[in-house]
Design brief:
GO terms for molecular function: (3S)-3-hydroxyacyl-CoA dehydrogenase (NAD+) activity; NAD+ binding. This protein is of the alpha/beta class. About 45% of the residues lie in helices and about 15% in strands. It has 32 helices and 25 strands.
C-alpha cells in the first residue's frame, strides 16, 4: 500500500502533543490538534508557541494547525492519514479514546500512541483488525523539534509495512533517528537512560558528592550534553523520571539491577516537596532574583535539601581531562585515573556497559539500536557500546570484572571468536557484531549516510592543522574544517584556497561540510584583537584582504561549490555560505552576520553581498528602493541570527533560488554531494565578477544618518553604536555618491575593509571584542 501523510490528527494537546503538532507543521503537514475542549487545545498551543526554545521553525507554520475538542471535532479525524494519540499516560484513558478513534478513522490510516511506557499489546487488545494492523507506538522525545529520537514500537499484530513506513517517514520527513523497539517496559532509551541516572543517584548519595561536582564530571568532558545529570533531571522533570523508574521496578522483576530503580531518600523528599525541576521552578537547581534585579542560579545541597550559591568545582583531574582534544583520550584518562571524577566514571560506565550487554536481546536484538537511542534521545556523543569500543573491549571487560561488574556471556564469546570490537569499518561501511549470527553485519543505512570522518579515513587528498580535503567520489571534493569551534583563521583560509585549486584541477565540484558541533563560529576574533591591540594595521589589512579574496575566489571558481552549514554559521561562516553557488543547510541552522555585536561590520564580503542582494531584490520586485535596503541594513545592524533554516530564508541569509534544506542531519552531506553533481551536470559555467551592483549613495546615507541620530537622541543606542551604524551605511550605500550608481564588487569590498580597519582602531571596539572572548557577553558601551 502506498502511503502519503497530508494531514495528521494529534489527540491531546499537552506538553508533548502540542509540540509534536508544531513539528509536523514545521515540515508543511496540515495538523488537527484536539483536546477535551477547543479552549484547552488553544491555550496549550499558545503556551507551546511562546516556550523557549520555540517548537516552530517560523511563526508562519502556525497557520497549518487547527484546534478543536473531542466532543465536536473527533469525527474530523476521518480525513487524517496519521492519527497520533498523546493524552495522559493512563491505560484506561488511552483505551477509551482509541475505541472512539476506531469509529471515525478511515481504513488504512495510521494510528499511533506516544506512550512512554504503557505496553502496546494492552492498548491494541480488542481493536478492529484493520486498526490493529495499522497501530503501533511512536514515542517522541521532548522537545520533539530538537531531540531526534523517535522510538517505533510494533504491537502484536502491527503490519510490517506500517512499521517500515514509520521508520522511513520519521527519518526522511521528520528528521528523526528512528529506532525499532520491542514492547518492553520503557522501551530502549528510557530503560537505559533512567538506569544510568538512577545508578548515579545512588552513587552520589553514598559518596556525598555535590550537584555541581556530578554535573561537571558527567557533562561535555564525557561527550554528554551540558545539562549532564542533575540539570537533565530538572529539564525532563523529576516526576517523569520517578514514574519511569517506578514502572521499571514494578514491571521488571527479573532485572538484576531492579533495586537501583528504588529512588534514594533525597529524591523521594524532593518529590514530596514538589521540587520537580523546571516545571515547578525548583529542582536540583533554582533560579532566584537578587536585590539588584539580576538573577542567580542556586544549587541544592543533597544532605540538607537547602539551596545555596553554586560552589566552584576544583579538580586537577577534570582540568587535565579537558586539555585532551579527543573523547577517546578523555575516556581513557578517566578509566585509568585517580580521584573522584575517575571513580565516578568507572562506577557509572562499568555498570552501564554490563547492564546494556544484558539487555540484549531483551529490549533489542541488535546492539546498534541501543547506541542510536542514547545518542538521539539523551544527546550522548557516543552510545554505550561505542564508548566501550573506544576504551577497548577486552581490557575494559577485565577491569569491569575486577570492580564487580559482570557483562553478559556473549561478550566473552565474541572476544573468544576473534571479534575484538562491537563495531568495525569494512570497505567504507559500518558493521556491528550480531549476536544471532555471531558475525559482523552492516548497520542498516550506513551506506546511505556520508560523514566527513568516514571520507577522511577513506581518501584524504590534502590536510593541514585546520582543514582536511577528502575525495567524496563521483568527482566531488569535500572540504572539512576542524579548528576549535571551526573558526576561520590562516589555516582554514589556506585550506579553502588549496581546496579550490585541487577541485578546479581534478574534480567537477566541491562541498564544504564538517561534523563539528557548529559549522563555523566565524573568523578568528582573538587574532584580530591581538593585532588591533598592538596597532598592527597592515596585518589586519592583510588578514581581511585574504579572507575577502578567498570568498571571491570561491564564488568565481571554475567548479560549483556547495556549502552544507549546520547549527551555528556566524560571521565569517555565514559569509562563506553567502558566496557559495548553493547552500544545502540543515533545518536547525543558526545563521547570522553578528559582527556589529563586537564593534565591527561584516568585512568578508557579507556587507557587499547584502548590498548586491538588495539591488537584485529591487529589480525583481519593483519595491521601494529605500525600504528594501533598510531591511537588509537592519538585519546586519541588529546582528539578527536565524533560529532555523526557514527563518534564514526570511532574513535573507538563504536565497530560495540557490538554497535547499535537509531536515535529517545524517542525510545532509549526501544531499549536498548530489546537489554539487547536479549543478556540474547541468552545465556549470564559471561566473564573471560583477561590476553592475546598483547602490543608492547619498539617497540611502541620508535615511540611515537621520535614523541613527534619532535612535541616539532617544537613548536607544550608544555613541559607538551610532558610529558603527554609520560605517555600515557607508558601505551598503556605496559611499558618498551624489546619485545612485552601478559599482563593482571590488569597490564594495574595499569600502568594507576600510570601515573594518577604522573600527578596529576604536577603544570601545576592542572592549567589545574582549568582552565576547572573555565571557561571551555582548557589551553595549
Amino acid at each position: 500500500m502506498k502511503r502519503a501523510i497530508k494531514k495528521v490528527a494529534v489527540l491531546g494537546s499537552g506538553i508533548m502533543g502540542s509540540r509534536i503538532a508544531c513539528h509536523f507543521a514545521n515540515i508543511g503537514v496540515e495538523v488537527l490538534l484536539l483536546d477535551l475542549t477547543p479552549e484547552t487545545a488553544d491555550k496549550a498551543l499558545e503556551t507551546a508557541v511562546k516556550s523557549k526554545p520555540s517548537p516552530l521553525y517560523t511563526s508562519a507554520a502556525l497557520r497549518l494547525i487547527r484546534t478543536g475538542g473531542f466532543e465536536d471535532d473527533l469525527p474530523a479525524i476521518a480525513s487524517a492519514d496519521w492519527i497520533l494519540e498523546a493524552v495522559v499516560e493512563n491505560l484506561e484513558v488511552k483505551r477509551e479514546l482509541l475505541e472512539k478513534v476506531a469509529g471515525y478513522r478511515a481504513a488504512g490510516s495510521l494510528v499511533t500512541s506516544n506512550t512512554s511506557g504503557i505496553p502496546l499489546h494492552l492498548l491494541a487488545e480488542g481493536m478492529p483488525e484493520d486498526l490493529q494492523a495499522n497501530f503501533c507506538g511512536s514515542h517522541f522525545f521532548n522537545p520533539p523539534r530538537y531531540l531526534p529520537l523517535l522510538e517505533v514500537i510494533p504491537a502484536p499484530r502491527t503490519s510490517p509495512e506500517a512499521v517500515d513506513f514509520l521508520l522511513d517517514y520519521g527519518d526522511r520527513y521528520l528528521g528523526k533517528t528512528t529506532v525499532l523497539c520491542k514492547d518492553t517496559p520503557a522501551f530502549i532509551a528510557n530503560r537505559v537512560g533512567v538506569y544510568s541516572i538512577s545508578q548515579l543517584f545512588h552513587y552520589v548519595a553514598e559518596k556525598g558528592l555535590s550537584v555541581e561536582e556530578v554535573d561537571k564530571y558527567t557533562g561535555p568532558v564525557l561527550g554528554r550534553p551540558k545539562s549532564a545529570t542533575f540539570r537533565t533531571a530538572d529539564v525532563v522533570g523529576l516526576d517523569t523520571l520517578a514514574r519511569v523508574a517506578r514502572g521499571l521496578y514494578e514491571h521488571c522483576p527479573e532485572d538484576e539491577e531492579r533495586e537501583l530503580f528504588r529512588l534514594p531518600a533525597f529524591v523521594e523528599k524532593m518529590l514530596a516537596n514538589n521540587r520537580l525541576g523546571a516545571k515547578t521552578g525548583e529542582g536540583f537547581y533554582k533560579k532566584v532574583k537578587k536585590e539588584d534585579g539580576s538573577t542567580e542560579i542556586l544549587s541544592l545541597r543533597l544532605d540538607s535539601l537547602e539551596y545555596g550559591p553554586q560552589a566552584k568545582v576544583a579538580s586537577p583531574a577534570l582540568d587535565a581531562a579537558r586539555s585532551l582534544d579527543s573523547l577517546e583520550e578523555r575516556l581513557k584518562f578517566f578509566a585509568t585515573g585517580t580521584g573522584e571524577p575517575a571513580g565516578l566514571f568507572r562506577a557509572n560506565s562499568f555498570g552501564l556497559f554490563s547492564y546494556c550487554s544484558r539487555r540484549i536481546p531483551e529490549i533489542a536484538d541488535e546492539l546498534y539500536r541501543i547506541d542510536d537511542a542514547m545518542r538521539a534521545g539523551f544527546g550522548w556523543e557516543k552510545g554505550p557500546f561505542e564508548l566501550w569500543d573506544l576504551l577497548g573491549v577486552a581490557g575494559t571487560l577485565e577491569a569491569m570484572e575486577k570492580a564487580g561488574n559482570q557483562a553478559a556471556a556473549w561478550v566473552k564469546e565474541m572476544l573468544a571468536a576473534g571479534c575484538s570490537s562491537f563495531y568495525r569499518l569494512k570497505e567504507g561501511r559500518k558493521e556491528y557484531y550480531d549476536l544471532s549470527s555471531k558475525a559482523y553485519r552492516e548497520v542498516p543505512g550506513s551506506g546511505s549516510y556520508l560523514s566527513p570522518g568516514l571520507l577522511k579515513r577513506q581518501g584524504t587528498v590534502w590536510k593541514n592543522a585546520g582543514v582536511t580535503l577528502a575525495d567524496m567520489g563521483e568527482g566531488i571534493l569535500n572540504c572539512e574544517f576542524h579548528t576549535k569551534m571551526n573558526t576561520m583563521g590562516s589555516e582554514v583560509i589556506e585550506g579553502l584556497n588549496k581546496a579550490i585549486a585541487i577541485a578546479e584541477k581534478d574534480f567537477r565540484g566541491m562541498v564544504i561540510a564538517n561534523e563539528g558541533q557548529d559549522f563555523s563560529a566565524g573568523a578568528n576574533l582573538a587574532l584580530v584583537l591581538m593585532y588591533a591591540a598592538e596597532q598592527e594595521w597592515e596585518e589586519i589589512d592583510l588578514l581581511v584582504r585574504a579572507f575577502q579574496d578567498t570568498m571571491m575566489r570561491m564564488r568565481y571558481s571554475a567548479v560549483p561549490v556547495v556549502a552544507a552549514p549546520h547549527n551555528r554559521a556566524l560571521g565569517g561562516g555565514c559569509e562563506l555560505c553567502l558566496h557559495a553557488d548553493h547552500v544545502h543547510a540543515h533545518a536547525e541552522l543558526y545563521m547570522g552576520l553578528v559582527e556589529f555585536g563586537v564593534g565591527i561590520i561584516p568585512a568578508g564580503g557579507g556587507t557587499k553581498e547584502f548590498a548586491r542582494r538588495a539591488a537584485e531584490e529591487r529589480v525583481a520586485g519593483g519595491i521601494d528602493d529605500l525600504e528594501i535596503l533598510k531591511n537588509r541594513y537592519m538585519t546586519i545592524a541588529m546582528a539578527k541570527v536565524s533560529t532555523s533554516a526557514a527563518e534564514a530564508f526570511e532574513l535573507g541569509y538563504l536565497d530560495r533560488g540557490s538554497a535547499s534544506v535537509s531536515i535529517n542531519r545524517k542525510r545532509q552531506l549526501s544531499a549536498a554531494k548530489k546537489k554539487a553533481i547536479e549543478i556540474a551536470r547541468g552545465g556549470y559555467v564559471q561566473p564573471v565578477p560583477r561590476n553592475d551592483i546598483r547602490v543608492l549613495g547619498r539617497q540611502g546615507l541620508g535615511m540611515f544618518t537621520v535614523g541613527g541620530s534619532n535612535m541616539f537622541s532617544g537613548n536607544y543606542i550608544s555613541a559607538h553604536d551610532r558610529k558603527i551604524s554609520e560605517k555600515l551605511a557607508w558601505v551598503i550605500c556605496g559611499g558618498d555618491l551624489s546619485a545612485p550608481a552601478e559599482v563593482s564588487e571590488r569597490y564594495l569590498l574595499d569600502l568594507e575593509r576600510e570601515a573594518f580597519l577604522s573600527l578596529c582602531g576604536e577603544r570601545k571596539t576592542l572592549e567589545r571584542m574582549q568582552s565576547i572572548l572573555s565571557g561571551g557577553k555582548v557589551l553595549r558601551n
